[in-house]
Amino acid sequence: MNNELSPEMSLLLAKVTELLNAQTNTITENITAAILKQVDEKIKPIREENEKLKNEVEVLNKKILNLEMNSKRNNILIHGLPEASEEKHEDLINLVTSTLKGIEIEIESREIDRLQRLGKRGENDSKTRPILLTTTTLQKKIQILRNKKKMKPNTYITHDLPKQKLLLKKESKSTYTNRNEMEKRKRSETPSPGAEKSQLSTTNNQTKQHTTQIKNKKYNNLKEINLPPRMVTAGESDRHPLTTNNRIYIATLNTRTLRTPESLLELEEALKDLHWDIIGISEMRRAGEAIHEHLDYLIFNKGEMRGQGGVGFMIKIHLKNYIQDFHGVSERIAILNIRIPNYKKMWTVIQVYAPTEQADYSEIESFYSKLSQIVTTHTNNTIILMGDYNAQVGTKQNNDEYVLGNFGYGKRSPNGQRLVDFLMEHNLTLLNSIFKKNVNNKWTWFSPDKKSRNEIDYIISNHPKLFTDTSVISKLNFNTDHRMVRAALKATPAKLSRKHIAPTRTTDHSDINQLTSHSLDRLRDELMASDSRDVKTSYAKLQKNLTNHKNKKLSKHKYTLSNPTLQLINERKSLFNNKLRKQNTQKITELSKRIRNSIIKDRKTNRLHILEKHITRTGGTRRALKELREKTPWIINLKKNCNDNGRTSNRKEINKTATRFYSSLYSNQHAREQRERNSPISSITEPKILPSEVKKAILSQKPDKAPGPDEITNEILKGTLESVVPLLTKIYNDILLSGYIPEQWETSHIVLIYKKGLKEDIGNYRPISLMTNIYKVFSKIILDRISTTLDENQPMEQAGFRKNFSTIDHIHTVKQIVEKYNEFNKPLYMAFIDYTKAFDSISHEAIWDSLESQGIPTFYIKTIKSIYANSKARIKLESLGEAFKIERGVRQGDPLSPKLFSAVLENVFRKLDWEGYGLRIDGRKLNHLRFADDIVLFEENPSKLQKMIDELNNESNNVGLFMNIKKTKLMTNSENREIIINNLPLEYVNEYTYLGQIISHVDQTTKEITKRIANGWRRYWSLKEVMKSTEFSIAIKRKVFNTCILPCLTYGCETWSLTKYHRDMLKFCQRAMERSMMSIKKQDRVRNTTIRFKTKVTDVLTKIDQLKWRWTGHTLRCNQEKWSKIVTDWYPRDGKRRRGRQHRRWEDELKLTAGPNWRRVARDRNQWKMLEEAFAKRHTELRDIL
């Protein structure tokens, strides 16, 4: 059989092969081009960052050079002066002064700051060393340099320049010399061909040699600059840092006291230049148990009595995530469990403050017995036992004492023998005795008379081979009679560096990086040019550009010490370093007092400056106190279960406990699968999102708010407004079209804020949800579009989260009903309903049904469904917990949430047939009022009220709302008839706080005024730092009073019916506050008119009258239907007043000014306004002078 192909087939095969090769080449070229393009895109930011880094290095080098130049500003070098006759420093001074006198320069010794020979003198070296002369003034140096030409032969004067400047000077001089030689060669006669070739070769060699010299010099110059050991991408941490200090330092110190913030600040300053990672502290003298996070470290304290004993720890912030738990056993023992990096075993660090030799035997034995139990419990861990033992161990007495090393100190005391017995019992080693040290560096405590020095502070461990050194820090600049003991632990740097992000406070608008705006502009052009709707990629690029922006973060406030304080600390440091410390004891004591007082003054000055800045700007202190926050408290321990008394202090267990609690709270076993997630929306029936909507939503975001998980703050969005608006508009519209919700929107972080009650109960913490601000902008846009429809579906019974409604409307309605029912002796029953975790428990299905029934377009319902479909949250304490799903409740922190909740509640009440229930008011039925989830029911018949509560309870349960029986209360002016929920009776009360105001059938105004005065004083004393300070002007105090304290006194005053007694109560309260502001006592007999003339604060009674008058006129003129307006005009037709004088009515004051037809007058705005001044001044005495 012939295997050869025919010519046609051969030709066809050749063409096919040729085409395949061409296609292969084309594909290869395209793939190569695509890969190169992607590589260029990825390398481009790195190049930009490298250029930026290079510029920064150049700037730093210039700064270093300038600093060096400034330090040598007054220096000159004198060369060639003989040094054979110099035996004393005075000889050198005489030599220089006589030399300068020879060039007509008179210089005195006081004009010489420094004078010395440079370099070491060799034995057989005939070369003279230059003399460095530093003058006290620049003028003297210039005078010398002007006359330097008059110097004798072989002597000359030069500038003292930095090495880098000298190299550049020599380099330029060498280049200038070579150029001169080349010019000479050009002008010389033309040589023969051979000579020309030879000369050219020589010139080339010289040029090459000169180039090599320049390169070497440049290389040497680069070597002198401290560049990083290797290149790292800008903005990222080095994952494998090169360091010679591969140790962890663990220390112990008896501070004598750390009770005040000033003493802690003094200790911070003393530790500034010291290597430390963990410090155990004795005698902290802080009462209670607490954990606080500062800027650079954590601090734990345990104490029982304020000003006595107490122990604790200071831990560097980079070890925060390795802490397992703290446990304060007593005021003498504290435990820290920590996983030190690169060690598998758990480390148990125990800080102690042992009883003294004079303590009772039983106390000493009790201490060691407790310590023995603790060591036995943690025997499987690596143990460090350290602190002030008040025991002198001394030197090893025999070879059987294997727990001691060969380098002990002093004699042994009874407590010392007890400690040695304890060490041998548990096989622990005293690290102080292992490492050989100078005798002067062994003692840790000196007696009050400075005659005795003993070693009583120790570091002990069951694994001594892990430690490379134990030493006594002899020069710690802190006033205590103890010295710090510090042990160095072997450690290798972790492969991945730990990042600590400080809590963001605020970002400065003016500090927005221009590079971010440029990169956003490029991204905008890229997205606008593309027709792709890939939301995931677009959003990821946007987030990357915004998070690359370097925020100006203001984290926890850190107080700085003034120069006078630092000078005092340095002065005391010199006394500490002096060998004659005994003679300096009194000076050290006096300086320590001055330092303490100076630190107190610095802190006070700093605080007052920040308070004044914010008070002047806003009138309040909230932002100032937020900026001044030094620390963040940690949760010390939590109950593992709500019904269990067992507690945990383990950091991971605390996070897991909180995660379990909120995971259970937000879980819904009956939740249906939401299949609409990420399903494309077929067509947009609503208009697209406009740039103006995005811009409005961004500008409406509040400043100084904590960001979500992406760390993008509102300030970043506002700072890049022009660039980010087109990008967000495109992305938002793509989200609406595609139905895809970015994953970054699904997860929020929950932080816990303590409210009241037991701190161990997780239910006593308020969860605050932090979600990404880009989502909040989108949510606000959707809210603006649907809020009008939702508000139109709300009846006038609902006043929460609605425009033109406030708490005052419902407070006034309830008080008017109580007042008029009491006046006409009619029975009234009210039920104040409270739901358990209302916003966190409603069913998601109920939300969708409510939105659909109230006419919200399906397009928006599907969008909101997609957002809720895969919502997750993580508990954020000092670390993040595991993510859990949000299967019920509205998303906390979401702008949509209040409206969604109101919509669900409205659907609940629509299903209730209450036409025959409630109070008859001018032909209408008022059966309930709502302000968000605060609900009050009204009825004259208790049996009907029972039915109302039962029906409301059943319908509420269907949407996931459950009544809190303990907090749901009843109130009546008639007989107490039993009303039950779920077979449990509800409690009747005489008074109830509704929307911040006391509701009562008996003397409710007096009760409310008493409460307002108490709240006013509470607010006043919370602002004591401002109101009682002599540093603030009266204008500042007046502004704080009018802004912060006056609203506490006047809240709800629009609904009050005041008598002279009530007015006197308020008047006397304000006068007392004014006297306190001015530091005036009643005994000083200063007239009230004089005090008011100085303070010029707003009079509380005038303010109350103005607010009541204006609100009344506004309410009666309002065209919108409100129950507050209806009940004002209404009075019962079927009741009967009691005999005698009636109680003070709300409207009585208005009648006195506007007459019996005051309602008609109120509807005329101009006439009502004319009467306002008369109404506000009818009860005043002092106000006439203002």
Automatic annotation (TrEMBL):
CDD domains per the UniProt record, alphabetical: L1-EN, RT_nLTR_like
Record GO biological process: DNA biosynthetic process
Coiled coil residues, start to end: 36-70
GO molecular function list: catalytic activity
Keyword match Coiled coil: yes
Ranges of Basic and acidic residues composition bias in the record: 160-173, 180-189
Membrane spanning stretches: none
Taxonomy, superkingdom: Eukaryota
Comp. bias regions, Low complexity: 202-214
Domain Reverse transcriptase: 734-999
Keywords assigned by UniProt, alphabetized: Coiled coil
Keyword Coiled coil in annotation: yes
InterPro entries (alphabetical): DNA/RNA_pol_sf, Endo/exonu/phosph_ase_sf, Endo/exonuclease/phosphatase, RT_dom
Region described as Disordered: spans on this chain: 153-224
Protein name, entry field: Reverse transcriptase domain-containing protein
Species the sequence originates in: Euphydryas editha (Edith's checkerspot)
